[in-house]
Amino acid sequence: MSDRFIRWCRSAAGVTILLSILLAVIATIDRGPYILVNTAITGGMLALVAVGLALLLGVMNVASFVHGEYFMIGTLVAYYVFTPLQNFLNTNPSPLLAMVAPLIAILAAAVAGAAAGALTEIMVFAPMRRRSRENWVMNSFLLTVGLAVLLINGHLLIFGADFKGIVRYWAGAPVTIMDVFISRDRLFAFLLSIIVILAFWVFMKTTRTGRAIRAVSQDETGSLMVGINLSAILIFTMALGCSLAAVAGASLLFLYPSYPTVGLEALYMAWFIVILVGLGNIIGALTGGFMVALLKVLTVEYIGSGWDFVVPTALIILVLIFKPSGIFGSEVRGVLDQ
Questions:
Q1: CA 85 – CA 97 distance, rounded (Å)
Q2: What is the rounded distance in angstroms from the CA atom of residue 79 to the CA atom of residue 30?
Q3: H-helix or E-strand containing 175?
Q4: Residue 214 neighbours by CB under 8 Å, 6+ apart
Q5: Rounded to an integer, what distance in angstroms lies between the CA atom of residue 272 and that of residue 254?
Q6: Which end of the chain is more exposed for a tag (fewer CB within 10 A), N or C?
Q7: Cβ atoms of residues 284 and 84 within 8 Å
Q8: Span of 126-130, 177-181, 196-200 with lowest mean pLDDT
Q9: Sequence-ordered list of residues with C-beta below 8 angstroms from that of 304, at least 6 positions apart, any chain
Q10: Among 263, 247, 228, 280, residue whose Cα is nearest residue 114
Q11: Amino acid 220: pLDDT
Q12: Contact in structure between 45 and 204 (CB atoms under 8 Å)
């Protein structure tokens, strides 16, 4: 066993991950394998939303409290794209269209989320960045809270307060994994989250744009000196982060019907994850999504559904007291001084 591995096991991140694995094993033995299945499915989607939030924090120093509304945009677009396709299929059956219709809805939501994110950067943050960077994090926080109120009330005014959801994306018998019955929609949501996360990882590590994003997160001035188009990178980063939230919302439309405040739970959980692993820590957010999902599943199973926000909140308070930088460490530079 290498010294590096031993040091990792003794670190806050290593101890927390090992403890999470131990809790998952004990709960699975006590209550059954559905604990692992529910954790995996919930964790994948939470990781998508949290990675987008961590991306905005790590690259742009934007403490976004409007991120849940991009989740809401994803649910809304997916509903209005998928419902007409479903109505058409009811009168004109087509196995091929039935298979790809959900993918069309989710792709449309991803594009809408990216467009909304790009517009947010161009119309809101870019003008503010040009005028003043004093108290940037606090100002961005207040600005995103205002945007959240605007989008929630805009949804209420234009689309009403009615729940807009679907029964399912794909018909068919549930899939059995470890004697646990899983609907096709839940299984697809998990697989999609893994595919998107892996694609995001590869993009950030291997592409020129991904390396440019990482460079901007480390040093804006140095990035400008080597010829990186800072404005384009910031627009793309905001679009990418918001698109990830929209994809999560669209993928879970069968669980979370679209209504004005549907994104609040996703926002709270994403912030739980980001604070737990460290502000702006994109890699930590991937692991944190599954850790918070496990905590949520165990809380509902052993304490009750009414406590699923209380226990994570208590954990976040402890993290802020004893490990303010998060268990993986913050990657946001000078967040108090921006």
A1: 8
A2: 39
A3: strand 175-177
A4: 204
A5: 24
A6: N
A7: no
A8: 177-181
A9: none
A10: 247
A11: 77
A12: no
The Cα 208–Cα 211 span in angstroms is 5
Question: pTM of the full predicted structure?
Answer: 0.88
Residue 248 one-letter amino acid: A
> What are the tokens at 50?
């949290």
Q: CA 126 → CA 62, 117, 133, 162, 245, distances in Å?
A: 12, 12, 11, 35, 21
pLDDT, one tens digit per residue, over 148-167 is 999 999 999 999 889 998 88
- Assign 266 to helix, strand or coil: helix
Instruction: Compute the distance between CA of residue 34 and CA of residue 43 in angstroms, rounded to an integer.
Output: 14
Residue 111 has φ and ψ, to the nearest 5°, of -65, -45
Which residues are registered as beta bridge partners of 175? 182
Q: What is the dihedral of CA 278, 280, 283, 289, to 10 degrees?
A: 70
- In this structure, what token pair is assigned to residue 268? 């709270």
CA distance 75 to 202: 26
The answer as to CATH 1.10.10 being correct for domain 32-322 is: no
Domain residue spans of the chain: 32-322
The predicted-structure confidence for 204-242, as pLDDT tens digits, reads as follows: 888 888 888 888 877 777 888 888 888 899 999 999 999
CA distance 181 to 37: 10
Task: Please answer whether residues 299 and 307 qualify as being in contact, where contact means their C-beta atoms are separated by less than 8 angstroms.
Answer: yes
| DSSP calls for 66-99 | -HHHHHHHHHHHHHHHHHHHHHHHHHS--HHHHH
Q: Which helix (H) or strand (E) holds 223?
A: helix 220-225
Hey, what amino acid is at 71?
Answer: F
Tell the burial category of 211 from Cβ atoms under 10 Å away from its Cβ (0-12, 13-18, 19+): middle
Element containing residue 144 per DSSP (H, E): helix 136-159
- Residue 3: band (very low, low, confident or very high) from pLDDT cuts 50, 70, 90: low
Coil, strand or helix at 281: coil
> Look-up: residue for tokens 């939303």?
49
Assign 334 a pLDDT band (cuts: 50, 70, 90). Answer: very low
